[in-house]
Specification:
Blueprint lengths: L5 H6 L6 H21 L3 H20 L3 H11 L4 E2 L2 E2 L19 H5 L11 H6 L13 H14 L3 H14 L1 H10 L1 H8 L3 H7 L1 H4 L6 E4 L6 H5 L9 E5 L16 H14 L6 E7 L5 H4 L14 H19 L4 E4 L4 H11 L5 E3 H21 L8 E4 L3 H17 L3 H6 L1 E5 L2 E2 L26 H8 L3 E4 L9 H10 L4 E4 L11 H7 L5 E4 L6 E3 L2 E3 L2 E2 L6 H10 L7 H13 L3 H5 L10 H18 L12 H8 L19
Parallel strand pairs: 3-5, 4-5, 4-6, 6-7, 8-9, 8-11, 11-12, 12-13, 13-16
Antiparallel strand pairs: 1-2, 9-10, 14-15
Length: about 650
């Protein structure tokens, strides 16, 4: 049967049976596979591509989308999707030998495959790239030295970020090698605080598409758009709607920098392969007037969509992800506005594998710091009194997790909550507050007390052992507050967790100076070491990166379907347990960032032990050696070998 032009296709009547079309498709597909296996001539390949195209047109003319898909998969043509072989199936698991069919310049343009000057002479000859690279062959160690030389020559953090993203675009494994080996140096560049500056200038810095941009304009078609993503084996999604980026407010689509940064740490710190990670931004508009008037803004220039339409959009997105990638796909919600963040988490946490890092991840890392601090203050958790500056996602999450931990010590839940005092923009949260604003999760921590308007007065009245700031109010911990904390406590706990650095409640230097070097300090963004009266203190950075990569790694490795609060409590306890006495003597309440990959592995392993006890794991049979099972799934930054195995046939 010959089909020579579109007129022949149109001549087929739509009333003909579906059976005929499917039979035709199968015959054409089989013919294509036969010819593909028998010939390599260019003209035949072109004919197959044309035949496949005509067959898809025929199938679509009958309204049979499945047939069109079947034709595409049957031919498995050499045409590329985003530089990779087109395939409807997940990439097969390989050892370190890569049998890609890509040849020539295309392999140098694919960041997943490109090794730059590390390609051997034989690889260059076999793959048709000999002469396309400088003739000197160097190893990855030498390439890394070149990367660091270039990195250190950049004068600003933004320039360093741009350089690293350019490296990521051309050589994925070398990028992650650098990030893994120089974590302390590079994490503040790809994540907080630099990523905040990047988001503010995202429209100006935009170079190349990364991640999935889903607009409210496409409501009703999100599954089709999710299917446009070229990777078929996604296991982790980080999604934001850009409404509350760090402490910077509504940045709309410019918030895409956050999912990209988070997922780079999934790989560098948690070992989750990058092709299994998908960054997503949901464009529902923005209420940021500066962005609405910015000609370089890359998002929808209308006010934010809210209400039922917004809720339906979120529902469609979650269902589209699960439909394509499966029920156990991890969805991390990131930097949503307070009301939406709590609502979305409560709606989906029992239906899908999801968590909110601003609520649960921040809670876990803060709790880890508090648990480690108790070894310095020599108190039980329930013997502490906490005052929290802010009553948003982060502090509500911290308060709930601390209360849960106290109940495990034997403290009744209400008594545990009574030890946590919260201050928002209207003052102390108390029942019947004249200024109002006591709603949602704040009610659980409202006190029977007279209203107090300022944080300074609350601290004087309550006399807490610990103050925690996570409301992005710069310099909220004043000199008066810090000196009062030192007067009330031998070792006051001061956690200034707001990001980026410009939003911190106080600096490390202020905390140590105004408490006479006696405070236990942690911050959300990094601070340099502080010298006070001859002693050097290394401020602990309460970065969520201590928690979410390890939690994600464990969830994926053991196929956890629902993420209970106990998972984040165990993660906090594991992280705190890795803080040594030497770390505490230096003022650290977290392990050094140079050890963070080991922290992630330990958290994932302990998570595995607990999810099987609690019946949350779906990975069967249960691995006997859970750490070995996790390591078998982790990403390697070593280059793959492109020289295929060869052998001789036996002599006749």
């Amino acid at each position: 049967m010959a089909v020579t032009d579109s007129m022949s296709v149109k001549a087929v009547r739509r009333s003909d049976s579906t059976f005929v079309v499917e039979l035709y498709v199968k015959v054409v597909s089989a013919l294509g596979l036969f010819l593909r296996g028998s010939f390599e001539h260019t003209s035949i390949n072109m004919s197959l591509t044309t035949l496949a195209s005509v067959s898809r047109t025929l199938a679509k003319s009958f309204g049979i989308q499945r047939c069109a898909t079947l034709v595409s998969s049957g031919f498995h043509s050499t045409s590329r999707v985003d530089g990779r072989p087109k395939s409807p199936f997940p990439d097969p698991k390989k050892d370190m030998i890569n049998n890609t069919k890509i040849r020539g310049i295309d392999i140098l343009r694919d960041a997943k495959l490109n090794k730059g000057q590390a390609f051997t002479l034989k690889e260059r000859q076999l793959m048709g790239i000999h002469g396309l690279l400088p003739p000197v062959i160097i190893d990855q160690d030498t390439q890394l030295a070149r990367v660091m030389s270039n990195f250190n020559k950049r004068n600003t953090d933004i320039d360093k970020y741009i350089y690293l993203m350019a490296l990521y675009d051309r050589n994925e494994r070398l990028f992650y090698r650098a990030l893994c080996e120089y974590t302390e140096l590079m994490m503040p560049i790809v994540y907080t605080p630099t990523v905040g500056k990047v988001c503010q200038e995202y429209g100006l810095l935009y170079r190349k598409p990364r991640g999935l941009f889903l607009s409210i304009n496409d409501k009703g078609h999100l599954y089709q758009m999710v299917c446009n993503w070229p990777e078929n084996d996604v296991k982790a999604v980080v999604v934001t709607d850009g409404e509350r980026i760090l402490g910077l407010g509504d940045l709309g689509v410019n918030g895409m920098g956050i999912p990209i940064g988070k997922l780079s740490l999934y790989t560098a710190l948690g070992g989750i392969p990058p092709h299994e990670c998908l960054p997503v931004v949901l464009d529902v508009g923005t209420n940021n007037k500066t962005l609405l008037n910015d000609p370089l803004y890359i998002g929808k220039r209308t006010p934010r969509v809210t209400g039922p339409v917004y809720d339906e959009f979120i529902e469609e997105f979650v269902e589209a992800i699960v439909k394509r990638y499966g029920q156990s796909t991890l969805i991390q919600f990131e930097d949503f506005g307070n009301s939406n963040a709590f609502k979305i988490l409560e709606k989906y946490r029992q239906r899908y594998c999801c968590f909110n890092d601003d609520i649960q991840g921040t809670a876990s890392v803060a709790a880890a710091g508090i648990f480690a601090s108790l070894r310095i203050t020599k108190k039980k958790l329930s013997e502490n009194v906490f005052v929290m500056q802010g009553a948003g996602e982060a502090n509500i999450g911290i308060a709930n997790l601390l209360a849960l931990a106290m109940t495990e010590e034997g403290t009744p839940l209400q008594e545990a909550r009574d030890k946590i005092w919260m201050v928002d923009s209207k003052g102390l949260i108390v029942h019947g507050r004249p200024s109002g604003g006591i709603s949602g999760h704040k009610k659980d921590f409202a006190k029977k007390h007279r209203p107090i308007d300022t944080l300074e007065e609350v601290v004087k009245v309550v006399k807490p052992t610990a103050i925690i700031g996570a409301a992005a109010v710069p310099h909220a911990f004043t000199e008066t507050i810090l000196r009062d904390m030192a007067a009330f406590n031998e070792r006051p706990i001061i956690f200034a967790l707001s990001n980026p650095t410009s939003m911190a409640e106080c600096t490390a230097e202020e905390a140590y100076n105004f408490t006479e070097g006696r405070c236990v300090f942690a911050s959300g963004s990094p601070f340099d070491p502080v010298v006070y009266k001859g002693q050097t203190f290394y401020p602990g950075q309460g970065n969520n990166a201590y928690i979410f990569p390890g939690v994600a790694l464990g969830i994926i490795a053991f196929r956890v379907r629902h993420i209970h609060e106990s998972i984040f409590l165990r993660a906090a306890q594991t992280c705190a347990g890795l803080v040594t006495d030497d770390h505490l003597a230096q003022g650290r309440v977290y392990p050094p960032l140079s050890e963070i990959q080991n922290v992630s592995l330990c958290i994932a392993t302990e998570l595995g032990n607990n999810v099987y006890k609690e019946g949350l794991a779906m990975q069967y049979p249960e691995p006997k050696d859970k750490q070995a099972h996790i390591k078998s799934l982790m990403y390697s930054t070593a280059y793959e070998n492109f020289e295929p195995d060869t052998w001789d046939w036996p002599a006749k």
